[in-house]
Each structure stands twice: as structure tokens, then as C-alpha cells.
Amino acid sequence: MTSPQRIFGPLDHSYTGWASAALAIGRPAAELAAAGPDAAPVTMSNHSHAEDWFELLTRPLWGLAAAKDAVPDDLWASLADTLARAVDPEDPWYVGDVANGGQRIVESAAVGWAFNLAPEKLWDPLDAKAKDKVAVWLTAAYNGPVADMNWHYFPVFAGHGLKRLGIAHDPAVANGHLERMGDFALGDAVFEDGPGGRVDYYNPFAFHTYALLHYKLAGDDRYVANAAAFARKFRSWFAADGAAVPYGRSLGYRFAQGCLWGALAAADVEAVPWAEAAGFSRRHLEWWWDKPILDPEGRLTVGYAYPNNAVAEQYLTAGSPWWATKIFAGLLAGPAHPFWTVESAVPGPVVEPHKAARAVHVRDRAGNVTRLNGQAWVPWARTGEAAYGKLAYSTLAGFSHATGGPGLESAVPDGALLLSEDGRHWRGREDSDEGAIDENGVLTVNWQPWEDVTITTSLEAAVDGWHARVHVIETERVLHTGEGGWCVPKAGHGAEVDDARVAVASQGLRSELIDSTGEREAALIEPMPGTHLYWPATVLPVLRGVLEPGKHVLKSLIYIGSEV
User: What is the pTM of this model?
Assistant: First the structure.
């Protein structure tokens, strides 16, 4: 495995440098897709192999179309030919009908986007017969069914392609989808991702980014104010080094996390000073640029900070990670825009409650972000409990996913309190309320892991790298408890373990966990390899104890920082 920096060289933060980066990231996928479905990697997704291949072909178009003048003509010719074959029912590469919905509808948005921005590259070279088939397929996608969530934007972008190409379509269809989007508004600039859904990165890299890009293409500003307001809150999700706090599903889309900043520039909406938007965007891509996220051919892998299928949802494919290329949307602003010419501003400490998102984000004095989390788990998504149900998340320490097997080493309670009846099989926070945030930024969550066990957890973070957790537990059964601090890399670590405190340092990081009541035993465990987002092997400070039936109060202090 290797990094973009190792293959493509250092990241140049000029307009032309980012255009070159868009090409560098997008070309390997486009070239592999041009070899046809049989050449596409087999992955674990719940889609058909044809849909997996179609993602590999279409998702790079989000970045390549924005950087169209930097893309060589031979690559455009290959993309045009492959795309025409993919939507031709008479071709063996046909991706399939869109009448029944599914992933093809999702990718039709990238197709419409690319046809809108680069028709001279993708449309004009096609012969009349190929154009007819493209028009039929894209029109069907425009009129096709969608999942009742952020998917309503996909036909809208298919429509942008149809409009640019002069293909007749009913604008009422797109308007109906856009109106439905308004039903998901929760207030405070947040949209719920479908009834009963979560508030996660689908707000910035789907709802708000699409609203801004739709405005860029159509002049319809109905959700631009929401996007701008969200951006002002979204600043606190990013560390000073560019890392976005990992939380929620679809983290395998990687630097799509930062695409909202470029979308603001594309739409010329100065929601925050351009120096801030540019800084967040540049540092975010820089953070990813030296991570081992590419295979030796320069293609994005499935995983997060390293290749790891274990942390990906069931719908991610080998082509899915190229949704990250939406980060290059800022290229539409043009090289003279302040987004490209200003000097980056560096963020300072902040405590940012966001009640609609049920979270408090704290950027400490060292620039690292801790998310105090009130949202509950998502049971339908693979990895949904870890991605949503932990009590805290960190830009510096990431988080872990549980794996099958007994013991805390498999359950991996970083950022969490786990409970067990036998000390071997562990249960965390699953269903719960959505948390309440008081005027001081203290977040309180009520949860009930068993019918006869109720827990009230209060979370408070400070700008010195520490946060505090207090659990008031009422139980009618004997329970084993396991609470975790933050993981650090296993390689080269050194630890100090006392009765109620454990501190461990490794590779420039220090993690510390203290039992404030002195009733639990401190220990250092080695979680199962491959469970962590950042590092293949880790160590984790934990507190362990046993509760008899009755009422108990557990208190802990947790630290992560670069001061070892």
C-alpha cells in the first residue's frame, strides 16, 4: 500500500495543483473501468457486480468534470466510449435498467453532473445512435424511484445533464424531489437523512454540497441558507491539522468529508471567510495525502486511514471511495477566486454545541477535536453501533469497531462504556434517547441496555485535551463494566498502569484514563488487530469493575494529546 504523496508527489495548493490532484486521483479508476466489468475488483457489497463497476466509472467524474481542462483528451475519449457502452442495453457491458431504482440511480447524478459541465468531452464525440441510448437511460434515471432520503438529489443532477444536452424532461420531477428535501429539515441548518435517520457527514457531503452545486448549475437557492448556516457549525468538526472527526457511516468516502468548503466556493457563497474555507479544505486534503490509502496502481482502497474492509458498510464497493473527488468542486470557482488566492486561516480552540446534530464538538488548544455524542446507533448499517453509538470520537485517536469473539479485546470500548453479564460478552449503548445539551455544553444521554438497567451518562469536554464522563447506573442484575479511553498505536508504546489510572504513549501520542471514584481496576489491553480506523494494531486503556444490584455512580477522566 502507498500514499498519494508517494505516488504523485507533494500536494500543490494552487488552482492548477488541485486540478492535477483531481486527475491523479481520478485517472486510475477511469482507466480500470475502461477495461470493462470483468476487470473490476470483486468486493463485498450488496450491489450487483455491474453496479460496482459502474461506481468505478462514474464517481471519479465528480472531480474530473470539475477539472475538465486538466484531463487529457485520450482519457475523455475513453470515458465517453465506456459510459456509452455502460448505458447501451445491447452491449455486454450494460449496467442495467433503472426502472427498479437501486445504485444506478445514485450514479446517474455523477453522469448528469459530468454531461452538464463537460458535454464537449463526453457527449459531442458520440454518434447519433449512442446519443439516443444515453438520452433514454439518463431520462429513465431522472424519472426513476429513489430511497426516501438524501437520494432525492440524484434525479435532480441527472436532470442537470438532460437540460444541458437539450433532452426534453419534465422539470416538475426535479422540483418534487427538492420539495421533499425540505421535509427532512430538523432546524438549526440540519437535515435528517430519511425518517429515523442520523445526522452525520451526509449533511455536509450530500444535502448541503448538493444544494450548493444545484444552485451553481440552476440558480435555485432554496437550501443555500441552510448550507451556509451549517458550514459555520461545521468548522468545529475539523482539527487544526485538517483531520475531520470520524463519525457515522460511509467514512470510506474519505476526503468527501471536506467537500462542503469547495462547494461554497463553486457557488460563491461566503458562509465563512474565504481564508477559513480555503484553510479547512487545503488542510483536509493534505491530511489524507500522506496516508496509505492507495494500492500500488494508485487506486483508492476500501477502508479509512489504511485499507481495511472490516470498517466498511455493506454498500461500499471498490469504486465507492471516488465519491471523495467531490472535494475538487471548488475548481468551478476559477483560479482568480479568493478561495484559491487567500492565505489559509488556522482555527483556534472552541466549544461548539450543535443541538440539532445532538453533539458537542470541542477543539482543544492543541487543535484536536473531540465529539461528545448523543446520537444512537444505526442497526441496519454494518459497523453502525461503533460508528454512531460511542459516547465520544476523536480526530487524534479515531475509533475502533468491535469484532466477533469474547472479551474487551474484541468489543474494543474506546470512547464507550460496555456492560456484560458474564464478563465475556459485551453490550454497549444501542437504542437510547438523542441526548440533551445544557447551556454549559454538557451533554446528557439516557439509555437502557436491558429492561432492568437504566443509565444516565453526562459528558463534558475541556480545551486542554481532557473530557469527563459520569454514569449513573441503576441495575437489578449483576453487571461487569468495561470503559475505554483512547487507542494509540501498539508499535513502540510505553505504559504506566496504577490501580485506578493508566497512561500510555506511542508515536507522539499520549492517552490517559483515570477512575475518579477509585472503584474500578485500570488496565491496558490489546484490541483485535484491524479494528481501528487509523492503525492496524493498537493498545487501549480501560477500566473494569463489577456492579451489584442497586444504584452506582461511575466517574472517569479521559485524555488524548500529543504531549507525551
Answer: 0.97
